[in-house]
């Protein structure tokens, strides 16, 4: 079930209808059936129930009419809001906010151990301040892990002592998860260092959820990444080698999609993954050019990039799904506002050669020129130059093969002894 109770929207905020439609799509992705919606405009949230008393009564009636068992708010509720609303709606009706819904979707889609750790950490940090003296629902929400074999922490007896015990259990689990994720961060850091030594640039594919990032990676590399018309259909990052027009090898990484009001718990928990974006050489921003809120989606992506320390990086904007536009001028108008735009259709393959040319032209700025003579028996060095750089010419000489190329600075240093 889908509900929203917005306050007055600031300039640039999403229209209520558009935000509600996105919330409904999130609900359907989580496996829920949407049967109605309610809105209310308030200057500020009610301190007790978030919405006004009259709207609570209306909500109770609508829940009874539709036999709904879940009510979702398109804002983050405080623990008190959630508790009072569930009390008003009665037993059997679960109250969720946008953050809890997104966490549930992430929990469904996390396939790798790292993804599962990150989601579990975000879930526990979200739920810790929401513990009550009877929170058996937590075991169900995290698949039974938090509740142990007996079916839920907190069922052994009520009281403040048990509540504090429960909090200690959760805090210990959070500390354990953070320690494991620090190991993941260290492993990723070592991998990035090795990658830099090899001189292989990294392009991070970023964008709003369901913009077509996975479809694009599949089109560029035959990656075989799951593609569905759902929000957050893919969660765990996928990295594939892609050969640019010059023959240079680049790593493309498909990252988790962004969304407006991205929960802070997720940004913090996914730090190890999002650091890959911040450390990449180039950002490839995929934008659904057909979406009515495309500009606002682009703004949400840029805000998230700033939050994770990736603002200011070189960026190429891929305006995707242009084959579905009845008026191409719409995409051109949008492109004029974004850095290094390229019109593409990841599904049909339109514009992909232009996209790779644009990526290569930007990455080429980090290369330095070399003019070296390679011994004829050092084909391995020529292959290394082709993989990490761009060969501009090669001509045989009496001493060997003269190669004029653009290569990463480190490789240029290794080849320095062979300069002519």
Walk me through what this model shows.
The protein has 420 residues and is α/β, with parallel strands linked by helices. It has four domains: 16-103, GTPase HflX, N-terminal domain (Rossmann fold); 110-180, no CATH class; 200-364, Rossmann fold, CATH 3.40.50.300; 367-418, no CATH class. The protein has 15 helices and eleven strands. The protein has helices at 16-29, 53-66, 79-89, 98-109, 113-127, 137-141, 160-198, 213-221, 264-269, 271-279, 294-307, 328-335, 352-363, 379-388, 409-415, and strands at residues 70-73, 94-97, 202-207, 238-243, 249-254, 282-288, 315-320, 341-343, 368-374, 390-396, 401-407.
How do the strands line up in the largest sheet? 4-5-3-6-7-8
**What characteristic shape results from the CA principal axes?**
elongated
CATH class of the largest domain: Alpha Beta
Q: What is the rounded distance between the termini?
A: 72 Å
Number of helices: 15
The name of the CATH architecture of the largest domain is 3-Layer(aba) Sandwich
Task: Write down how many β-strands occur, each being a DSSP E stretch of 2 or more residues.
Answer: 11
SS-derived structural category: alpha/beta
Strand residues, percent = 15-25%
Low-confidence spans: pLDDT under 50, at least 5 residues? 1-11, 133-159
Rg: 26 Å
Oligomer: single chain
The CATH H-level homologous superfamily of the largest domain: P-loop containing nucleotide triphosphate hydrolases
* Share of helix, binned: 40-55%
